[in-house]
Amino acid sequence: xxxxxxxxxxxxxxxxxxxxxxxxxxxxxxxxxxxxxxxxxxxxxxxxxxxxxxxxxxxxxxxxxxxxxxxxxxxxxxxxxxxxxxxxxxxxxxxxxxxxxxxxxxxxxxxxxxxxxxxxxxxxxxxxxxxxxxxxxxxxxxxxxxxxxxxxxxxxxxxxxxxxxxxxxxxxxxxxxxxxxxxxxxxxxxxxxxxxxxxxxxxxxxxxxxxxxxxxxxxxxxxxxxxxxxxxxxxxxxxxxxxxxxxxxxxxxxxxxxxxxxxxxxxxxxxxxxxxxxxxxxxxxxxxxxxxxxxxxxxxxxxxxxxxxxxxxxxxxxxxxxxxxxxxxxxxxxxxxxxxxxxxxxxxxx
Length: 350
What we know:
26% of the residues lie in helices and 36% in strands.
């Protein structure tokens, strides 16, 4: 059984037109920059926003099809939602919050409370049943929200940035707990996130959404190895350049050229890891195949590593050590020489 969705929806400046498929037992992460339509996709799947066109089919049942006049309301869909800010009712206890979804679907009060208590035990919060949200930590509130979503036995679980509201110290632990809980859920899961770490830890497959369109899909390893947009390349931490290949040369769309190790023909992408970009104060000695002068656009320290963003017709990010930065004495606005070995460049068809 599967989720098959073609989501078409206009919302302000966003013109969303995206196709999504999820198999039983699969977790798909929807990645994308702010404003790309990630949360809109989830709201349409949940029934909180009707489609303008397209359709949503879950386990063979049509939930939304404007052309056929079908729109199943949210409370009648076998869908559970964990919102970014949890959206727990502040005046209700943890037990009552979990029971709310069941009560909204017509479950008797005593039965709803009994099932809610069982779910709080499953997420390790049985002794917090009487606590209101303001007495819970961020991680505990997230687990209550997850229990509320799962208590209704949904076929589809939607998670909208479930870790975004947590501090860095708590996030790793809650991510591990969430992975364990998702592993015990037999249905389909769609996770919206902007963090590739969440996608790596929780998802089987990723769908990248940019400006309302799917630009790439596959495992995170596949997407990282062969990104097809600058956003994806920056997300996974590599440099991406596009150009026209002819034998061992790639003429770049923005100007300049690269010499590559493997012959390439026609439109192609080139991926260069930041650690493969060497930076010099003066032209490097020897005969490296790819050497050019570039301005230093920005310098960003990450512990003992430093990312140097280079401008010009071949914009790249170089990663060097902190001692190397001190030795080079680099500052934004200065001009340096960059070098990349042809063997460090991977190319593939655009």
